[in-house]
Amino acid sequence: MTKVMGAAMRRIQAGNALTAFGIGFTVPFLYIYVAQVRGLGSMAATSAFVAFALGALVALPFTGRVIDRRGPVPVVIGAAVAASVGALSLGLSTGIVAILLSALALGAGQAVMQPALATMIVWCSTPSTRTRAFALQFFMQNLGLGIGGLVGGQIVDESRPASFTLLFGIEAVMFLVLAAVIATVRMPQVAGLKDAMPQKDGAQAGGGWKRMLQHKAMVQLCVLGFVLFFACYGQFESGLAAFGTEAAGITPSTLGFALAANTGAIVVAQFVVLRLVEKRRRTRVIALVGLIWTVAWVIAGFSGLGHGSAVMAAGAFVTTYALFGIGEAMLSPTLAPLVADLAPEGSVGQYNSAFALVKQMALALGPLGVPLGAGIPMLYIGVFVAVSLGIAWLALRLGRQLSPVQDNPSLSRVVAQGGPVAGAAPAGIVASEPAHV
After folding, report:
1. Nearest to 349 by CA among 15, 11, 69
2. Which among 15, 82, 143, 146 has most CB atoms closer than 10 A?
3. 392 and 329 share a domain?
4. pLDDT tens, residue by residue, 232-248
5. pTM above 0.85, yes or no
6. Nearest to 85 by CA among 108, 102, 62, 63
7. What does the pLDDT look like over 34-53, one tens digit per residue?
8. C-alpha to C-alpha distances, 321 to 256, 257, 263, 265, 349, nearest whole angstrom
9. Are residues 277 and 220 in the same domain?
10. Statement to judge: residues 263 and 297 lie in one domain
11. 267 shares a domain with 146
């Protein structure tokens, strides 16, 4: 990694952490703000979450092409400004229409930032450093969210709407800080990144959705990603929370502690886990995550059986969230770098945006688990035990579509030194779906 790449990466990571800190101020309190503080009720609060997701789903299909043609820097700046406007207006809004429009802008801005920042990280890293870079990004995000949530909890007061306006104002400022930081980033221009840089001829850049949908490995990764996000993030604040409160008798305070345990597990385990996974096959790491989450769902089921004490049920539930956190720590240096390594020339933005869209779709459909988790709890657990085992199967199946270096980037050093790689194609034979990293 060159000095220019290192300096740019430090600024990107700093901006990312500060933004997460700002988001942490508002995420835990959005429902209370709309439903109770503004007195609009639970349906209005639910509609705000829907608008937030809809903004992301509308914006992301067009984001990748813009990133690949114009570069990620102006996209991050534009998205940050849009998110800032959305956050500030949300804090000032009192009516349902204004709140929905604000949530739409905030959701679109936050969603567009994700693939643009991921593309910047790709530009400022090499295949050998990319895994650690994405792990650091995930660590900083969770640390920022956790600290922001803790500080925000000390400021917020349900009897004072102005305290919520202050929280959203802080979030808006943090988005503008991100825009200012990214505007000062000097992106590297080196030969090793020619495959990730946007092409001068827009017609040659990317290839659009049709090209990506013909890429079998990427399609399989998107399917796997959807199942991962639906089974984890999509259930945290919806189906699993409903299961915990209805079947396991978990109190809201215990649920909050479980979420804190999830974040704590990520922060504590991230770099320990990184040392264990960065030299191993990515698909086997993902398969192991599926098995860990299978255990997590079984433990969650135990908390809802009602055979133990309330303390045992709470402990089991908190353990479930902590195990999910360990799995997330294993995925952070695995999924995003794999998306980048699969992207053909000039399509890094398109691939990152597509994967972000898959995540948003999974999150939007996550609440479908609520009726099952609250009404038929043991069936709910059984379904997600099966889904988690399916994650392991899908990951191993994906491994057959990847080259040895795509599945294990540490082998790139062997290739660079002219050494043989087990499973690699013989000299002169080109893979049918090459990836440019």
Report:
1. 69
2. 15
3. yes
4. 888 876 788 888 878 88
5. no
6. 102
7. 888 898 887 888 788 889 88
8. 11, 9, 9, 9, 32
9. yes
10. yes
11. no
